[in-house]
Amino acid sequence: MLLPPAPSTGTACPGGSTLAPTRHELSRCDECEQPVLWTITEAGRPFAVDPKPNPDGNTVAIRDGLGVWRSRRPSRDRPKALFEQVFYPHVASCTKGVHIVLPDNVTRLDDARRRRRGLPPRPRS
Questions:
Q1: DSSP 48
Q2: Number of separate domains in the chain
Q3: pLDDT in tens, 72-120
Q4: Number of other CB atoms surrounding residue 121 within 10 Å
Q5: Using an 8 Å Cβ cutoff, are 97 and 110 in contact?
């Protein structure tokens, strides 16, 4: 008699691990306090992605055999593999760039430094 397969907590990759990050693997962004998943890029640098997979993202990630999340940008030469999950880079969704209206008697230091160097102030959106 065949037993039914055991329920899965996520999509399994060839190494047997799941693609969904656990809450223990998440950190908080220093700027916006939102949860982020830190990955290691192909260049060996840390890169933050939003923790929930998003098909609109442009970064694919997989947990390797040691439990480290690895990320890369898919290309024409190396498209997304079946076992890779698509994530949205956190730098694109972070709210740290939200413009805060300061009182008239407060000077934004980064603008003051740019003026002192002869650079134009950065545009605010």
A1: E
A2: 1
A3: 999 999 999 998 999 999 988 888 765 667 788 887 777 778 888 888 7
A4: 11
A5: no
